[in-house]
User: Which sequence fits this backbone?
C-alpha cells in the first residue's frame, strides 16, 4: 500500500507516511477492491467498519420517492465513507455509495478501529473533527433542499461562497456539478443562472461568478 496517499486523509492529519505505516501495520485491516459503476453500499446497510478510499473515486447519492437521483458528493481518495455513522444506534449508510472508477477501500472493522482510537489520541481527535465536519456539511445540505426555487438555492450558495464579502467567487463546480448538488437538471441550472444574469444580480462565466446586486441575492434566499 502507498501510505503516502493517506497523508491527505483527515483521519491521519499531521502524520507522515512512516507514522501511518506504523499504525496500520499494527492494525488488522483489509483491502476491498471495486470497479466503476458498482454499488459499494446501499442505503440502510449497516456501517460495521471504517472505510477509507485508498484509490479511485466513489459518490454518495440518494433516490427520492419520485425516483429522482440526488447526488450528495463525490468522495475521492483518501476520503472516508459514512464516518459519522460508524457509532451510534442508527449506524446505517444514509445514502447509496456508487463507484465512479476502479479503486480500493481500506477497511477496518469497528472493534479494531475503536482499539486504534483508544491507543492514539491524535487519531481520536482527528476522527472527532471528521464527524463534526460531516455533520456541518449535512446541515448545509439540508438548508439547500429547503429552498423552493433553484434561484434561491443558487443565491444562498453564491452568498455562502463570498464569505468575506468579496464580489468575485469561484464556485468550484460546473453547471453539471451544481445540478447534481441541488438535485435538479443541468438545463434548470443554466436557465436560473441566465435569469439571474438578465436581472442584473450576477455575471457568470464558467465557475467564476461576480456578484452585482448582493441585496437582490439576499432577497432570493428568503424563498423557503
Assistant:
Amino acid at each position: 500500500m502507498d501510505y503516502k496517499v493517506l497523508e491527505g486523509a483527515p483521519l491521519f492529519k499531521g502524520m507522515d507516511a512512516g507514522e501511518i505505516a506504523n499504525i496500520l501495520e499494527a492494525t488488522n485491516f483489509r483491502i476491498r477492491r471495486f470497479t466503476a459503476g458498482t454499488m459499494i453500499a446501499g442505503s440502510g446497510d449497516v456501517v460495521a467498519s471504517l472505510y477509507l478510499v485508498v484509490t479511485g473515486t466513489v459518490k454518495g447519492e440518494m433516490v427520492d420517492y419520485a425516483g429522482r437521483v440526488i447526488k450528495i458528493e463525490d468522495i475521492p481518495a483518501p476520503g472516508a465513507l459514512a464516518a459519522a455513522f460508524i457509532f451510534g444506534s442508527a449506524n446505517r449508510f444514509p445514502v447509496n455509495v456508487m463507484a465512479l472508477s476502479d479503486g480500493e477501500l481500506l477497511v477496518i472493522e469497528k472493534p479494531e478501529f475503536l482499539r486504534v482510537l483508544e491507543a492514539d489520541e491524535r487519531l481520536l481527535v482527528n476522527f472527532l473533527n471528521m464527524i463534526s465536519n460531516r455533520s456541518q456539511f449535512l446541515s448545509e445540505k439540508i438548508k439547500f433542499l429547503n429552498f423552493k426555487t433553484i434561484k434561491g438555492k443558487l443565491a444562498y450558495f453564491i452568498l455562502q461562497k463570498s464569505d468575506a464579502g468579496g464580489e468575485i467567487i469561484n464556485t468550484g463546480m460546473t453547471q453539471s456539478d451544481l445540478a447534481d448538488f441541488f438535485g435538479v437538471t443541468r438545463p434548470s441550472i443554466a436557465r436560473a443562472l441566465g435569469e439571474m444574469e438578465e436581472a442584473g444580480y450576477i455575471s457568470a462565466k464558467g465557475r467564476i461568478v461576480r456578484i452585482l446586486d448582493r441585496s437582490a441575492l439576499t432577497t432570493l434566499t428568503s424563498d423557503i
About this structure: Helices lie at 17-25, 110-119, 121-146, 150-161, 175-182, 186-198, 214-220. The chain is about 40% helix and 25% strand.
